[in-house]
Design goal:
single chain; 6 helices; globular; alpha/beta
Amino acid sequence: MKKIMLVGRSGAGKTTLTQALKGKKITYHKTQYINHYDVIIDTPGEYAENKTLARALVIYSYEADVVGLLMSATEDYSLYSPNIVSMATRDVIGIVTQIDRPEARCDLAAMRLELCGCKRIFYVSSITGEGVGDILEYLREDGDVLPWEQAQEEGTE
């Protein structure tokens, strides 16, 4: 599985998406520091919101295969500069989160991620699970067995 680093402002859903990608129960947990899991790097929103702390994101991005820029579908503005993806040395994908919220504006969030330079955009609700499998499929490498495939194989035996 490719390693992904999740970046976004506080409340964008990075930790919740991390829990959903790992198949864990969703619980609120404020990320205080960079959490480095086996294939996920979960970063605090303050690192994206503060120019001085943002330098750490650059360093940690070298440990990832893919950088995921998260944008909540309920955001009023974008933290990301136009065409910021062109500065990355890794694949960068856009992830629109909180698509299940009544006030969600998925089209606006996607437009902002496209303005950043994201060519591939995923739409996710970590609460309902919608779109989580699409990200896992994108991160899959040859030989990886995803959880639902393993359950299916075990059910046929």
